[in-house]
């Protein structure tokens, strides 16, 4: 798949709430995920299974999604970016509105790096 095809499929799957399926299908085995400093579930996580578990842990902490928005991806060569916004109630910290910019790198049709920028 091209970077554009990966980006489009990533956005569609995330909009449908298939975040974990997205990791299984679109991520490379050696993917690296980077979060903002201070995140309780790991600032840097390496490996598809570890990224899957990190995402699963985040999702399991969600009580309710009140609203979510994922922008259309913007592609440049082998990278794409998207803005995500959520209104979410978490088990451990209550209701929160979040905005983040996500940057992804694609090699050989798989996501090899992801990084998230937001304010905690």
Overall residue-averaged pLDDT value: 95
Gyration radius from CA atoms, angstroms = 14 Å
Low-confidence stretches: none
What's the CATH class label?
A: Alpha Beta
Q: Predict the CATH topology.
A: Nuclear Transport Factor 2, Chain: A
Architecture (CATH level 2) name:
Roll
The biggest sheet, with number of strands, parallel, antiparallel or mixed sense and barrel status, is: 7 strands, mixed
- Backbone shape: globular
Q: What fraction, in percent, of the residue positions are helical?
A: 25-40%
- The tally of helices reads 3
Category by helix and strand content:
alpha+beta
Distance between the termini: 34 Å
The beta-strand count equals 7
Count of domain modules = 1
Task: Assess the beta-strand content as a share of residues.
Answer: over 45%
Protein name: SnoaL-like domain-containing protein
Pfam families: SnoaL_5
């Amino acid at each position: 798949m091209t970077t554009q095809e990966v980006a489009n499929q990533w956005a569609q799957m995330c909009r449908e709430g298939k975040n974990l399926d997205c990791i299984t299908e679109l991520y490379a085995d050696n993917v690296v995920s980077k979060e903002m400093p201070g995140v309780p579930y790991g600032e840097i996580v390496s490996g598809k299974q570890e990224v899957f578990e990190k995402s699963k842990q985040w999702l399991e902490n969600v009580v309710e999604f009140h609203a979510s928005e994922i922008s259309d991806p913007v592609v440049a060569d082998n990278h794409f970016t998207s803005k995500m916004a959520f209104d979410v109630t978490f088990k451990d910290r209550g209701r929160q509105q979040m905005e983040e910019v996500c940057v992804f790198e694609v090699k050989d049709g798989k996501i090899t790096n992801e990084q998230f920028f937001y304010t905690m």
